[in-house]
Fold:
Amino acid sequence: MEWVRLIVSAVFLLLGLLVFISAAIGVNKFKRALNRIHAAALGDTLGILFMILGLVVWKGISFASFKLLLVVLFFWLASPVAGHMISRLEVMTDEDLGEIEVDHHEDL
Amino acid sequence: MSADAVYQVILMGCMVILAILILVSIIRSVKGPKIADRIIAVNMIGTMIIVIIAILSVYQAEDYLTDVCLIYAMVSFLAVVVLTKVYTGIYLERRGIRGDIAAIEDNLGHQDMAAGRKKGPEEQTGAEIQRRQKVEAEEGIQTDGKAEANPERRKK
Structure:
């Protein structure tokens, strides 16, 4: 039983590492900041979920694993807000951004 | 070899790989041409450090490190919010623009100029002028009806 838990946990950790590696490669490979936000948000949501699920599977149900899941919940709430603010900074201040489409709403 | 010892090796390997990825992200945060690239890279470094602290709390069987994790997540989010607000404010102050919509339209004027299809105030549709007047009325700016995003006004 202990070995089964170890294998499941190790698979989750490996998936999380793969997501983080692709996020790091994407941040260095893409040419524009708006594309880099996409790559970075990958690690912020899916990567941290896989890593912490792996740790929670190994630890079992306890108060510490509940707090680890709380970190994931907080990240899922905070990371889109952070990405939105960074992209707004980029759209407002980058003067050679190129062609983008901006939706105007009358009640903005 | 017990499962516990094997798992310790796996956790150590994860931490080493994440440390290497942090170094890769630091390269982007040093090279990044725009300030937004640097903020993205710093945000990603913060995420990886949070994962490393979470792994460390399991590795050393110290439950209080999960609290450090939570606080680090909040501080990292706060840092991103403050940095974006500060750099937006610096840019707007340098341009002498107030308000977010005016800034976006100012930048759209830049894009139009770069694309070679300069759009003067007389070509604007009625809805655009109405919207701009509404925005200016809300912010209390007195203008002569000309576009704030007019590219000519910035060239002083």
About this structure: Residues 106 and 149 of chain B are 4 Å apart (CA to CA).
